[in-house]
Amino acid sequence: MGGASIWHWIVVGVIVMLLFGRGKVSELMGDVAKGIKAFKKGMADEDQPQAPVVAAPPVTATEPVRTLPPHPTEPAPATHATVDRKVV
Fold first, then answer.
1. Which pTM does this prediction carry?
2. Which of 8, 10, 72, 75 is an S-S bond match for 4, by CB 3.0 to 4.6 Å?
3. Are 25 and 16 in contact (CB under 8 A)?
4. In the chain, which residue ranges form alpha helices assigned H by DSSP?
5. Cα–Cα distance between 45 and 40 in angstroms, integer?
6. pLDDT in tens, 52-82
7. How far apart, in whole angstroms, are the C-alpha atoms of residue 32 and residue 35?
8. pLDDT tens figures, 1-53
9. What letter does residue 52 receive in the DSSP assignment?
10. Where are the domains of the chain?
């Protein structure tokens, strides 16, 4: 019961063919092959040294830098008075 015999795999294969059809299974296997090929290509590209990245030259300012006016240290005076009211 613990091992999968050849008959188990044949039954599984027949069920898969009935559920998905022959066309879907062949498409799936083709997609798996493309994925493996892309993975191998990516691994091969990783081993090759890459060209060094050239940094862009620094940009020089043509206009002087504008600064903001100094922040006031005192708060602005209140424009309206607050009144305590009791709700009746």
1. 0.35
2. 8
3. yes
4. 6-47
5. 9
6. 667 766 666 666 666 777 666 666 666 665 5
7. 5
8. 567 788 898 998 888 888 888 788 788 889 999 999 999 998 887 766 666 66
9. P
10. 21-48
